[in-house]
Amino acid sequence: MGFAMKLYEQVAHNLRERIELGYYHTGDKLPSVRALSQEHGVSISTAQEAFGLLIDDGVIEARPKSGYYVLQQQAPPTLPETSRPTPQPLAVSQGHNLLHLMNEYGAEKMTQLSLALPDLSTPTLNPLIKITAELSRTMTARILSYDFIRGADELRREVARLAIDSGCRIHPDEVIVTTGCQEALSSSLRAVTEPGDIVVVDSPSFFGSLQAIEMNGVKALEIPTHPETGISLEALELALDQWPVKACLLTPTNNNPLGYSMPDEHKPKLLELLAKYDLPLIEDDIYGDLSYTLPRPRTIKSFDTDGRVILCSSFSKTLAAGLRVGWVAPGRYIDKVMMMKYVSSMSTATLNQLAIAEFVAQGYYEKHLRKMRKNYRRDRDAVIGWLKRYMPQDTRISYPQGGYLIWVELPCDLDSIELNQRAYEHRIRIAPGTLFSASGKYKNFMRINSSNSQEPEVEAAIITLGRLCHEMIEERSLPVA
Ligand SMILES: Cc1ncc(COP(=O)(O)O)c(C=O)c1O
Predict the structure, then answer these.
(1) pTM here?
(2) What is the pLDDT of residues 300-342, one digit of tens each?
(3) In 3D, which of 22, 14, 27 has the Cα closest to residue 53?
(4) Is the CB of 178 under 6 A from ligand 1?
(5) How far does the centroid of ligand 1 lie from the alpha carbon of residue 260, in Å?
(6) Is ligand 1 within 6 A of the CB of residue 180?
(7) Of 21, 132, 279, 458, which shows the fewest CB atoms inside 10 Å?
(8) Ligand 1 contacts CB of residue 251 (under 6 A)
């Protein structure tokens, strides 16, 4: 399966590496377009495109009549350590906490740092609103009727085309449209497991997949996970040796909540291991298109040669969650997944599928992504900067390379459920770490959303969170009356 960087991407990649390695510092002038083209033996326009890419990525700026200069980069924070979850399969136990958190969303005006929502205020979404309005004005019988279980062909074609960016060659007939990625995940799980089975997951792990595991009567076996590279393949191998695992479920790119992206060289090794035990992989790629740099990381599916990877995604994080349009490419499990999708919701609402298909086909999706990647990187840097400034010393922070979720380890073993309760009085919501583990681990962690960093209340909220943490630490050191 061929997948190569385009020439300008290669040139940009080399230049970025030199900046990261310290050959060029903040404020340094970079070589001219001509010098870069000569050095790499590429055309002037390729060199210009490479600079354009680095500008889009927020790495450099162009100063009129002067040249290209390196921008200040946020120094990476101190990361949390590799997780050490309970080394045995567990029934998931966090459902009640989760429903409480989700149900109260929207009830009051809050600074919502808890939910993984994209920035909905961007003008690059306007064409989608326009297309949806036009479609609904001409409500055809097709829109008002059931769609195929597999979804609208127009959208399946666009999904297959977009998948090429992640190195994947999928035929539109291999794609099933779902009602969000959540339905893709739960249908896939039901297709490959039975009650009592064990599924391995990264740890911490997205609470929606943990709940889907719970609702299917399956147990989760959490694998130690590194905040930059993802699950430990050694730990996975040991777990597969020891337990009768039936499937693996991972979010390997711009992971929620930890932010890791699995390096490409791990992916064939993972597949080898899964082939040895003949296991399917459910790959959740919902944040994959939001990688800050191009080309985006390859999906594990793009390395799959025997159809064992079930690739799940949606437009909820890239466009808008309320549209409820997702998809799954189930490989060799297509018939079973199709059946599970049918019993889950019959078909997905047609209007939103057609609107997204048109939005993608007209090139608006690419334009939107180009802008959002840059914005979300800016947001990550802003929020990490505030966390470093306002949270107590020894707070550890993830450093995602895409998306808008930040995983924070509180110092002194502070309890994030208590922090959430105190924050509620200030109309602030965070996602407590316990939701991201089958057994309620990660009590001293929280996940926050950085996508709205431009709103002044976000910095104010982080100032408040920092103050509350300091207070909690001080209260501990007071003598008990
Ligand atoms: C990793 C991950 N997968 C799946 C979902 C669910 O996506 P959707 O809203 O498309 O159902 C989410 C939503 O937060 C998520 O973060």
Answers:
(1) 0.90
(2) 999 999 999 999 999 999 999 999 999 999 999 999 999 999 9
(3) 14
(4) no
(5) 16
(6) yes
(7) 21
(8) yes
